[in-house]
UniProtKB/TrEMBL annotation:
Coiled coil: none annotated. Residues 215-240 are annotated as: Disordered. This is RWD domain-containing protein. Residues 9-115 form the RWD domain. It comes from the Eukaryota.
Length: 240
């Protein structure tokens, strides 16, 4: 294979294809040149990915790969240029024996488009996820937190702890063990026997029945009973 002829012919073809964009950097000992690539809409908006591919022929190109370099990357903050370089080398190995710069430039251009589409999609998904999260948070403000058995039990335990209810229950439990006066009376048989013993004393209290014998001889007039100034034991009007 006439490597010099193959290389010279490809340079002429590339210059016509990328006229105004392709730049020859060196011609000896072999041609070295750069071609810019960018994702769609980058030139008009500046949004997307762009870089320059630099190719240097070797003595046996195209039976061996050209030297490929990547420079002047733009918006590669989330992009590893080594991934692009590995992709170009893989494509070159599949085209050994044939001039391949046009194929590599096209592959690089397509890679940038796919990569930028992936980046845009990821950014859009993050924005949508934030919007959904904000909407859910706003909805929860009106709906409140969904109550489950576990969450209710945990809340009640914390509430009772804050209110000191466990300690109060413990005190009430101890108070339940204390007997009321009635309970003591019912349970203490000595109290019952003390009343019976008092009654069994018999003559301990005696009543003089003669004190009540003359009650029937007392004469009480109706007028005396109706008189507001009536005093028992005093009859008749007061003397002047």
């Amino acid at each position: 294979m006439d490597y010099h002829y193959e290389q010279t012919s490809e340079i002429e073809a590339l210059d016509s294809i990328y006229y105004g964009d392709m730049k020859i950097l060196e011609t000896v000992p072999f041609h070295k040149f750069c071609i810019p690539i960018m994702s769609e809409a980058f030139e008009g908006t500046g949004e997307g990915l762009a870089c320059q591919l630099i190719f240097t022929y070797t003595s046996k190109y195209p039976d061996e790969l050209p030297i490929v370099e990547i420079e002047n990357e733009e918006n590669f903050d989330d992009v590893d240029k080594n991934e692009l370089l590995e992709h170009l080398i893989e494509q070159g190995n599949q085209n050994l024996g044939m001039v391949m710069v046009f194929t590599l430039v096209s592959a690089g251009q397509e890679w940038l488009n796919e990569k930028w589409d992936s980046i845009k999609k990821e950014k859009e998904e993050k924005v949508l996820a934030k919007i959904r999260a904000d909407e859910e948070a706003e909805q929860k403000r009106f709906e409140g937190t969904r109550v489950t058995v576990e969450s209710f039990l945990a809340w009640r335990k914390q509430f009772e702890s804050d209110m000191g209810i466990p300690a109060k229950r413990e005190r009430e439990g101890k108070d339940k063990n204390k007997l009321t006066g009635k309970e003591l009376f019912l349970r203490d048989t000595t109290l019952n026997e003390s009343d019976l013993k008092f009654l069994d004393d018999g003559d301990a209290v005696k009543v003089d029945e003669s004190l009540f014998q003359d009650l029937d001889d007392l004469e009480l007039s109706d007028d005396d009973e109706d008189d507001e100034d009536y005093v028992p034991g005093q009859s008749g009007s007061e003397s002047d």
